[in-house]
Design a protein that fits this description.
Its main location: nucleus. GO terms for molecular function: DNA binding; DNA-binding transcription factor activity; protein dimerization activity. It contains three helices and two strands. By secondary structure, the protein is mainly alpha-helical. The chain has one domain. A two-stranded antiparallel ribbon has the order 1-2. The chain starts with a helix and ends with a strand.
Length: about 80
């Protein structure tokens, strides 16, 4: 019985965190969980690229282009 409660608690924590992630990811609440997780990965990669571009003295001006998925100087901006 104790194992069943632990499994239930674990599922509740996972579901709670998935709901939080769904609200953070653009359109996360409008798609299934699998698609939302894929979009979350892409969104985090996009945000990492934004940080890289905005913190670079030479590349900061290309930051808006990264939003459109353009390729600048061999960097895949998507």
């Amino acid at each position: 019985m104790n194992e069943l409660l632990l499994v239930q608690k674990r599922r509740e924590r996972i579901n709670k965190r998935l709901k939080i992630l769904q609200n953070l990811v653009p359109n996360g609440t409008k798609v299934d969980i699998s698609t939302m997780l894929e979009e979350a990965v892409q969104y985090v990669k996009f945000l990492q690229l934004q940080i890289k571009l905005l913190s670079s003295d030479e590349l900061w001006m290309y930051s808006p282009l990264a939003f459109n998925g353009m390729n600048v100087w061999g960097l895949d901006l998507i």
